[in-house]
Amino acid sequence: MAAPVDPIQLFSAAINDPPNSAQQAQTLATLREALESQPNRLPMFLSTLVGSTARAENSLLKSWMLDLLHYALSQTTLNIDARTQCEEAILLASSSLDVLESLLNEGDVTTCKVVIQCFASVYPLLFRLLCLSRQQPSARSQWETVSRAKARILDLVGAPGVNIGLKLAALKFMQRVILVQTRNAVDPRLQSKNDPNLSQCPTDHPFLKADQLEQEGVRLLQQLVTILFTSQSVDLISAIVNGWASLVEHRPIFLPFIVQTLVTWTPNALAASPSNIRSVEKTIKIMLVYISKKPQAAPHMAQINAALGQQAMRLEQLAQDERNRRAEASRKRSLPASEETGSDPKRPKMENQPEAGPSIASVLSSFDFRTLPAALIIELIIANLTALSATTLQTAVANHRQTIRSQAPADPSQLPNGEAAVPVAEPVDPLKMEIDDELDYKLDRLDSQLEEQQDPAHSRDGNAAVGFPLNLTEFAMPPPRALSESEREVLVKSSLLEMQHRAEELLRPNDKEDDSKAAGLLGKPLAAMSSLFLVRIVSRGLESPFQDEAISSSDLPVQKQRQVDRLRQSLCDFVLDNFPARAEFATMWMNEEWYNDRTQSAENPSRPPVYDVWLQKIVSGYRRKLDGKDKSFSAFLLDLPHISSTLLELLRELMSVGFTTLRELVATRPPVRSEALCILLELTTHPEKVPRNAAIITLKRWVPDVQPMDGLIREFARQMLRRLEKKVSQEPTSGAGDNATEEDGQLPAEALVQTPYLPVDLHLPAEKPQVLQYVELLFALSVKAPDLLDDIFAGYSRMDVSVQEALQDLLTPLIRSLGSGHGKLLTLLRNIRRGAESLALRVITIFTENGRPSAPLVALVKALIAERNLDARFLMPIIGEMDKADIIRHLPRVVATLNGTAEQKNIVRSVFTTIISTPSENFGTVSSNEPRVRHSELLTPAELMILLHQYEKEIGLKSAMEGIGICFSMTEVFRSEILAVVMQQIVDEPVLPVLFLRTVIQAVTTYKSLVGFVSTTLLSRLVTKRIWINPPLWEGFIRCAKAIAPASFGALVQLPKEQLREIVDKQPSLKAGLREFVLKKSGNKAKVAGFLDIFNDETPSSTESSVQRPQTPTQPPIPAVSSPTAA
User: Fold this and answer.
1) Label partner for 844 (CA 20 to 30 A): which of 247, 383, 858, 935?
2) What is the pLDDT of residue 966?
3) Across 932-1018, where does the E strand assignment appear?
4) pLDDT tens digits, 673-684
């Protein structure tokens, strides 16, 4: 990357260059580029050098410096920060303002114009700065300098003899002053830094008098209005009107005044040409339309509309006057020359007559009207015809016809000897050649028959007498000479080369605009005529037989067909060589062949068709070169007179071009609509995604508003859905079965439509990609036609399970696009058919997968569960939105769905997550006043665990154990303090759940910190509740005691001896630890003896020597457990 250039060095080099030289200009241009690329250098550079350079004489350096100054102050392309720094640096240097003021007095117009433009940017900026820094020492002197410059510039607006460029610059400066010296919004919060105005001026400013400045601004605005109504300069009027756009935008208070001024303006005082008046009227119209779009213009719309109407009338009158003026001028130019007043021409002239000048008629006859613009010629013709009355015009036409008849010789024999009458064909309008081709053909045949009846010798004699008058209007060309085979081939090939050459000439750019217009007007009709002539030679001219002695009569048809095929093959090769450029020629050729097939087949039914053969060759030949973005091929197909079934089948394989053509054929060609639509419908079942989606997108545009396509598309989609239903076997003789099959108005299975992309019968179990081929069109249409959802829900219950599972997955995008608030979908869910419950469940699940269900959906599902007693799976998506009482009521049904599978465990875990409120991190240790989200509607973790124990019978022990296990797996929610609260609350209940001790064992296994709580509090509480009277709980008690031993020994010794003996018998491993615990803790000899009796020991002394064993480990501290309500 090149190093940045130093602007000071470049400026020094420019000063040292020869003044006003090319070298100096190049150096200054390089310096300008460097400064534009380094805008932060501009403030220092301008504030330092502008004063010394601008005071010099007119030179290249001076004009360059002024242009740079104007760029820094006015160009919006400059960075805003750099531009602000430049403006502030220039304004803070008072010498720069003095220099600018002195330059206003120079005689150079360009310099003065640039200085005025600089002041237009300086004035609002200086005003804003002085409003903020009014106590600066140089502030007053700067304002006085700018005020003097303002007075000098404003004087230029009304001064006579001032250059129009200076006046326009001064006028723009005046409009900028008006913006600054008027008020915007009174609210200081609405003030903009980029819009300096009087509202920003403090009322106690030492030298900026707001009242005086405001009065001056209003006076300048009135001066603009005076100039608008009195000025004869179109440029000044347009500049004033265009400048008011910013006034309307930033000063809405003046909008009524501006509207009133514009609607009352008329061009009466403007002595200008009609074109200039139209220009001003257009400028005012644009401004009125711009104002009408503002909200503040609503009260003035009646005035604006009335003014626009009057302006339209003025413009129409102006145009009419201009047409009349041109007609009058044309009429005066076309007056015949005055007849010469002379005597009898046989009388000898006695004196020389002055030589007469050329008459108007002779001048017009030699004038080349092709040099005039076409628009002017048309206006002249219309003006002349308008000036004539109808009677005069009819009389002139009749006289001209009589003159032509009288000038025609009555007999060709009257012609001078040696001059044979040359037959001239009457000019034929190319547009009339295709108006009635059938009539042309019949006339050609009639002419041929007449020529055969004439005497050949008589026709060859050019001087022989003719039995009818020679009248050009009734003359017919004789038939052309029959060409041989080789001559015809040469003619066709040379014509093709000539057409190609002419096309290239037309496409070649022309430097002269008039020449290009002439080529456009003359070349294209001639090229079209040549093409039509060539096509008709090949398609019609070869039908007439030719004589060739070298060919026998038996071989003539075969030879003739070969000749025709060779010529048509030449046309085909010519078209395929550059089809996009020759598509119109191909269209013309195919239309001629189609018409010729019709006319010839009527006379010769055995004649083989030509149109289909050569159309197939063109399409097949270009198919290999076809580009998906080529629109010429589609246009060619759409312009064909007939579309065969073979061609439609070919379009099936042409992807994007085929879809475009088929779409247009369906929309614009009713004869082939059914076949084209059938192909598009079949393509919606294509196994590949790209053509299938393209066909679906094409068909969607006709649903639901375009008939008859809408009905046909819907019926096809319904039949594709019916093909997924299971076939019901019926007895052939059963009349009741037949009625049952068609009671819903649907077709029997064997009558359903078939497509080439789908098997006759659906293979089960069905795969999802194959099912998608059947239903993707129906799903896409259901977005625009919701009534098709009825068919989906109705047919779902009659489908195989594998098809239903595939549909549930494929429906996901459609259901998400419809949304949970879709009325039709909610209605179907409310009135769900039997057998479609799994589909309804899938729809509800989709609605709740990525967000909370809507209130209407929750209400609908609750109503369905209450009325139909639906499966508990319907509860899971919405149970989190129920209130607490409903959650407690439906919780057993949800947990009862657990069946040991991981999938169902995950579902229930997600349900638990939605129905419990997560406790804070300080739960159980510190009281918190944190707000609880939906605390009154959700369950606490402790409540959920307790409910699982209380409803263990309704849930089932196995499912309840799985539910409790899920809770234990949610360690971030069910922490040790939560489990302590749960165990404390359950142990206080009168009837203990069967699974309680199992939960206790699981708790102490998961959290070792709970061992102390269980051993000292929980087990002792169970002893007091006589736990041994409940065998299942007693068994759990024994297992728990073993699990936490030796911490449980303190509670065990509280048991009666029978129960303690039972524990020792069932768990012998506890005997040694218990005996050691008793010997160490018990001081009563009798009590120790009783325990030792249970442990089968005779005396306490026999074991005293063996007591020297490791002491019982210290029990862990019991955690502080808050009250149950804290959970």
Assistant:
1) 935
2) 93
3) none
4) 888 899 899 899
**Annotated domain spans of the chain:** 231-325, 495-507+516-544+561-720, 1011-1127
Alpha-carbon gap, residue 987 to 1016, rounded angstroms: 13
Asked whether the beta carbons of 157 and 230 are under 8 A apart, the reply is no
- 799 three-class SS: strand
Q: Which of 999, 1078, 1023 is nearest to 1046 (CA)?
A: 1078
191 has a pLDDT exceeding 90 = no
Distance of CA 645 to the CA centre of its chain: 36
Sign of CA dihedral 172, 177, 180, 185: negative
**Of 78, 69, 164, nearest to 121 (Cα)?**
69
Q: Residue 554 has what pLDDT? A: 46
State the Cα–Cα distance between residues 727 and 730, nearest whole angstrom.
9
Locus of tokens 């009825």: 790
Question: In the numeric block, which tokens belong to residue 1023?
Answer: 């002893």
Structural tokens at position 165: 């460029």
**Residue ranges of the alpha helices (H) in 606-708?**
611-623, 632-638, 645-651, 655-668, 673-683, 689-700
Q: What is the pTM of this model?
A: 0.48
SS3 assignment, position 423:
coil
What 773-776 contacts at long range (C-beta under 8 Å, 24+ apart), as own/partner pairs, is 773/685, 773/686, 773/687, 773/692, 774/685, 774/720, 774/721, 774/723, 774/724, 775/720, 775/721, 775/724, 775/807, 775/810, 776/684, 776/692, 776/696, 776/810
Assign 3-state DSSP to the chain and report helix, strand, coil percentages, each to 5: 70, 0, 30
Mean pLDDT of 384-404: 77
Instruction: Say if residues 212 and 219 touch (Cβ distance below 8 Å).
Output: no
Instruction: Kindly report, residue by residue over 585-626, the tens digit of the pLDDT.
Output: 888 888 988 888 888 888 788 888 888 888 888 888 887 777
What's the burial of 1090, exposed, middle or buried (CB within 10 Å: 0-12/13-18/19+)? Answer: middle
* More confidently predicted of 421 and 637: 637
Torsion of CA 771, 777, 783, 786, to 10 degrees: -80
Helix (H, G, I), strand (E, B) or coil at 102: helix
Q: Is the pLDDT of residue 81 over 50?
A: yes
- Both structure tokens of 827: 């209605």
Q: Whose CA is closest to 795, among 725, 895, 696, 899?
A: 725
Q: Supply 223's token pair.
A: 């001066």
Using the predicted structure, report yes or no on whether residue 981 has a pLDDT greater than 60.
Answer: yes
Contact between 785 and 704 (Cβ < 8 Å): yes
Distance CA 114, CA 885 (A): 84
Enumerate the β-bridge partners of residue 939: 916
CB 859 within 8 A of CB 835: no
